């Protein structure tokens, strides 16, 4: 069953380490079955409970998956294999449109904001026991959430969106639980879910966000949590509009005990209204990151939700990092207060580039999606060939495999670095490389 590789160890930790070592060395392939518990226990001369504990550890780490009587096998994508590794490195002379980074010209200068934070720190240095969230940051965050119709709830601060989502999932779920995720969706989230020992259940989507039927199927299949991107969905740019939000709330209302997580990482870079889903389930959280508006190194996100969820997150946070730097928090307060870069102008700049590319592709008969944010998703007939042809034409795009579970093939283009003069050239290259995608929903 395992070819030449032999699992070794006498203790559960040693057995688990042996399996991980085999996967890392490429001697245990993705999808490869593992020996039944009793068979491996007999071969190693240990109690079956020891092997069961090792397999449980591996499952909790997202390394293997178990299917009852069908046994255990190496995950098709072990959590140690990041989707970020599925990329195309742009050689000299090739334009990079794959990285998902914001345009540096649209980011505000940070020196003034950090100078203010440093001066305040000099006047009153931070101390153990100070509030984890600056009152002024909480006030500004809550005012913005109120303006967008987000239900009332306490405010916490985390080190980015993914940190917040991980903490919320860990606060409610246990290894083996299922999580409904958008497909195609954010590659880091698709990595995180199995890394926590959870099972991702794909939800198809269109330009208006998750399809109600897809969400309903995932919930009927046992999803304990649902993660929805409200706008600037990565990679498709989908936006949950008012009508779709009503439909999704209707679905969620039938499942009040499910955990709802909403990701609003597009805050301050989009010009479409937020239509939150929160308020129909007992447990919920909404996350707003500063990374897209102020740069990836400003690792701060604001989290709100029901009291129990936020209390669990902050309680566990106190036992780890404790809090997110109040210097960072003070800098964000300054950025929010002064609007060094007008968010409407930022949204307009991304929108003009994105809309121009989608329109240019439509003129060439190529389907493309991008209602908000900085990315455009193009369904293709065959992904590997399309990526290779675009690379040969001088454009490095992101392979859709980074973002898919069961959705059809595609490529993602980030418009941040495109100028008006680039649009026609990249549209010509995509049209020549995409091929005829099958007539189906891209989700």
What key attributes describe this structure?
443 residues, alpha/beta, 8-stranded mixed beta sheet, 3-stranded antiparallel beta sheet, 15 strands, globular
Order of helices and strands: HHHEEEHHEHEHEEHEHEEHEHHHEHEEEH
Helix content: 25-40%
Strand order within the widest beta sheet: 4-11-10-9-8-5-6-7
Distance between the termini: 36 Å
Estimated radius of gyration:
23 Å
Tell me about the biggest sheet?
A: 8 strands, mixed
Q: What is the average per-residue confidence, as pLDDT, rounded to a whole number?
A: 91
Task: Specify the structural class.
Answer: alpha/beta
Overall 3D shape: globular
Instruction: Please tally the β strands and state the result.
Output: 15
Spans of at least 5 consecutive residues with low confidence: none
Could you state the oligomeric state of the chains shown?
Answer: single chain
Tally the helices: what do you get?
15
